[in-house]
Amino acid sequence: MAGMKLLLSALLIGLCAYYFYSTETITPEMVKGKRVLVTGSSSGIGEQIAYRFSEMGAHVMLTARRAKQLQEVAKKCLELGAASAGYVVADMENLTLAQNVGQEAIKQLGGLDYLVLNHAGGPVSFEYFKGDVEPMLSSSKINFLSFVELTSTALKALLESQGSIVAISSMCGRIGSPFTVYYSAAKFALEGFFSSLRREFMLSMNNVSVTVAVLGFIDTESALQVVRGKITMSPSPKEECADEVVKAAILRQPEVFYPFWHTKLIYVLHSLAPNLIDNLLNKMYMLENI
User: Fold this and answer.
1) How far apart are the two ends of the chain, measured CA to CA in Å?
2) How do residues 145-192 score in pLDDT, each as one tens digit?
3) Which residues are designated catalytic?
4) Percent helix, percent strand, percent coil in the chain, to nearest 5
5) Side by side, which strands form the sheet with 59-64?
6) Neighbours of 197 (CB within 10 A)
7) Residue 281 CB contacts under 8 Å (≥ 6 apart), including other chains
8) Which of 138, 175, 205, 210 is deepest in the core (most CB within 10 A)?
9) Is the pTM of this model over 0.90?
């Protein structure tokens, strides 16, 4: 028991040092003129990521299902300083449309430096699994297979530019999450694909980076709507989340956890004491409302 306490103390000290004393910074010059495709960018985290790249002078291509919102985001991207801002309307459950998005982005931008895969969708209910398979197929297409399709379509362009892939994941893809079985399963698959792809890139000595963003509860409209009145956890701001994701992408970091204390710390502690952490996490669910 004393040894476990000592190990946990050392771990906490190490995590604190990593979090507070990281000195790596980014500058607009690192991004100016770069070509960026951001999926799921009509609102939420994707919208904010598009704004961050725009502020640094990148060429941005947006995509989501809602044309009017994309028009508004593209307009604001230009106001913030984007070198150019275009958009393609597409539903990522249709894998052919996902492929078309990648092709159109590369055609309009003349190549690609950053592929930011942020979109999400599918079954949005927050409830017990009842044995239905159809919602799993829908979630897999949107939250996993479309990520693979876009990566495949953009791979040649990214190899030519020695660019970067950013895949937005979730704590649901690291620790099984109740009431989000379909989404959690897709995110576990996503993490397996991109972590394997990263190692292949390393072994083949090419210079395409893969960043997986492991996110907690963020105050996007869709997330708030799904869990309202069902969990006790407070959300973290999407603006700060976008800052951390973009910074990790530019610095070509393999992973980023946000918010740090609710993701990285929990993930590490869960690997050491899974039953204890599961019991603690279970207390945040308001089961009477689910």
Assistant:
1) 37
2) 999 999 999 999 999 999 999 999 999 999 999 999 999 999 999 999
3) 183
4) 55, 15, 30
5) 84-89, 59-64, 35-39, 114-117, 164-170, 209-215, 255-258
6) 17
7) 175, 266
8) 210
9) yes
Give pLDDT, residue 16: 54
Contact 210, 165 (CB under 8 A): yes
217, 262 contact by CB (below 8 A): yes
8 Å CB contact between 98 and 92: yes
Angle at which helices 238-250 and 44-55 cross, to 10°: 50
Q: Give the chain's mean pLDDT.
A: 93
CB-CB contact of 217 with 223 (8 Å): yes
Instruction: Provide the pLDDT for residue 65.
Output: 96
Residues paired with 212 in a beta bridge: 167, 255
Place of tokens 């052919």: 96
How far apart CA 62 and CA 46 sit, in angstroms, is: 9
Could you tell me if 23 and 48 are in contact, meaning their C-beta atoms sit under 8 angstroms apart?
no
Reported for 72-76, long-range contacts at CB under 8 A and 24+ positions apart, including other chains, are: 73/41, 73/42, 73/43, 73/47, 76/51
pLDDT tens-digit profile of 102-157? 999 999 999 999 999 999 998 777 999 999 999 999 999 999 999 999 999 999 99
